[in-house]
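Entry 12.
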Amino acid sequence: MYRVELNHAKAEMDTMIQTALDGEEVIITQNDEPILRLTRTSGSQPKQNRESEDGSNIPSECAGTSLQTFLHVARTERGMVIAGTRITLYQIMDHLRAEWPWKMIRDTYNLTDEQINDAMGYINAHREEVEAEYKLVLKQAAEIRAYWEERNRDRLIPPAPESLTPEKRALWEKLQAWKERIHQHDHDPGGSQH
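Predicted 3D structure (tokens):
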């Protein structure tokens, strides 16, 4: 991986492009925070130069190569995130698996079109890598949840009223009476008071 600070990127542009074309990932950072990723994607390579849209010739060694940038995707200690947020691509994957439309995901997390487009583009361009990390995240989350459920089982299950001391039982009965009054009031808001 080739890393370069943003304020040096312009001076090192030729090196960065050549590095990406050679198949190495280029990361441009700002204050040590990744803000831009350049990667090479390969396609079929014609045997001769081809003409670009502006009429210039493109060498055959560059044909089928494009540099993809995902400005709004970064790797942090939490994994792949939408840069500048705490939203992980794994959260986006949860919603994609639930078949949410991308606009709903965007609105749920208050993302810009550019952020959601980069996230979706990165997921599509790196499908196998993201899927593998996503499975690992799900496994770790299940293990953590099981650990804490087991550890807190006694705290989560309320004690039976019969096992309470007389003082606590009196408080419990008072609480139940209040709950019943609230329940009745919710179902009869006008209150049939006499």
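Annotation: The domain at 1-41+62-69 is CATH 3.40.1620.10 (YefM-like fold). The helical segments are 6-9, 13-21, 89-97, 102-108, 113-125, 127-151, 153-156, 166-187.
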